[in-house]
């Protein structure tokens, strides 16, 4: 199919004009037996926008445009900025040249000019409107009710006195934004009131709406899930499945987890290890192309907040039929992998299977088994899988050594954990710690993900890979400046060609055990490109792997479900071409939409975390803490506390000083030479915390207590 599509495009390009379909058939010498494939290729190209077909049957290539495609990313009084799709600096647009474009609109820009202050442009056309519904907080300014939006509108928007919705100052609301008649000014009409903006829980409701995340499933999707989940496992379901119910299989998750989608079994062999990673067979329960499947694709991922989870699949499946509960027969998709003593993959097989988990493992309990603090009762619970756990621990240690030799960077990425009271109010924030059991499962899942990608690449399947491209030269240059500034050797980053993971590992090794370890780890993380999904196996820089995908969490990630569906079809397929025809476009759509959904989920989760941190800090205004500078800007520095809370310290709060931003990493006091840079200890006092915006402000409070 791809070859026919390429031939059609090539023929049109060589002709330099549109061609009737009959001429295309003649030029390409399409036989009668090939006509069906030709017209399928023609339809596919038209759907992808690569050609247009007129009513009279003439086939055209799309006209090339000099317009720049971009998205409006911020809006101020009198002007806006647009970000080009293909990268580059944001473009200034005067309000008279906006053509009613608003934040989130996809636009075509023309008349691009370069002036003393940078590039400017005009909106030629609004190609696709974004959402005109925004969330924000109502405030009073000069006796007028205004909306302080949660998006990048740089001024408060007056609230129109229209509609029946009653709202007041301090409310978190959703509003419809529009231009006033015969004016460039905006106004907002409140359409929904969430409640007090001083409640993080209320703010999360607004965050869901602002990011287009649906907390509820449609009745049709729920009904489909219930019907699928209620069907017991029948003999027909077990046909051609490997019966692995006798294996010492167990799941290991957090104590509160209910969607148990992965289980393991590990044993020693004559040559090394036999690893079994058994994943819930979600694609068996979610019908391809059904209502539930479409909703899952739209959601893309489960989204996690301190007080709730918005799941990708309804609970009937995620917590029920697809959850690998101990003592129950469950349908799974198993990766059976043979590894040698050094952790190298010798062979792999993927099979539909049936398992019966022997133990519902918990990370904290397994960590106690490993560190020798488990009591007799706990050891008794895990007795059925103890040999498997010890083999898994041993294998994970081998894999860790292998990853270290390959130059995989073990970055510190501190996650926050929140404690809420019975009313959902945040009363504590602390770092989330990962123990040996958590790391063991991570290494075993990475191995299964790697094997799935290796299989797909070797078989040339249409697929959804997890890719992580090499960092851009600009970001590497910024990292070099930091490495030099803190006195480390940046030579590994200055070699010809692309940097390798081992080069990052070298820098991190230099920083290990020094005061700058955390800041170097943080900057390395920022330097890396963002991982995403793609149909091309370009490799994973962070893991130093040529082949990688996400296979192990189909309950909470759609790419995994897509991969299960493709691999299931591959196991049963007789013709590879059939798989390409059937899943080529599906894989591309799943990759694109899953990447977008991941970004959407991460944006929402981070916004919610900011609100919960601010809610916690409202109870600690005026208190002093020791922290470390985590970011430097022209107007101040960000400081991170030991509990992971981050706040902003304006330069005005430093008495008797004259700090100047060096444009890169530091604020330097011209009077004393004192330097504030990432990693500098700083003693601060909490000035304020605003739950609605998630903003926390500190001010300098003198020397650190440690001094």
Compact description:
Helix content is 33%, strand content 28%.
**CA-atom Rg in angstroms:** 28 Å
- Helix fraction bin: 25-40%
Spatially, the strands of the biggest sheet line up as 6-5-4-7-8
Tally of strands: 34
User: If helices are DSSP runs of H or I spanning 4 or more residues, what is the number of helices?
Assistant: 18
Question: What attributes characterize this protein structure?
Answer:
5 domains, 5-stranded antiparallel sheet, Arc Repressor Mutant, subunit A, alpha+beta, OB fold (Dihydrolipoamide Acetyltransferase, E2P), 707 residues, globular, single chain
Note the topology.
Layout: H1 2-15, E1 19-20, H2 21-27, H3 35-47, E2 52-53, E3 58-60, E4 68-76, E5 79-84, E6 91-94, E7 106-115, E8 118-128, E9 133-141, E10 144-149, E11 157-158, E12 171-179, E13 186-196, H4 200-210, H5 219-230, H6 235-238, E14 242-243, E15 250-253, E16 262-268, E17 272-280, H7 282-285, H8 291-299, E18 303-304, E19 309-310, H9 315-321, E20 329-340, E21 345-356, E22 359-362, H10 363-371, H11 376-381, H12 386-405, E23 416-420, E24 426-431, H13 436-459, E25 465-467, H14 473-485, H15 501-511, H16 517-527, E26 532-534, H17 558-572, H18 576-617, E27 624-632, E28 636-641, E29 646-650, E30 659-661, E31 666-669, E32 675-677, E33 681-690, E34 695-700
Parallel strand pairs: 14-21, 15-22
Antiparallel strand pairs: 1-3, 2-3, 4-5, 4-7, 5-6, 7-8, 9-10, 9-12, 10-11, 12-13, 16-17, 17-20, 18-19, 20-21, 23-24, 25-26, 27-28, 27-33, 28-29, 30-31, 31-32, 33-34
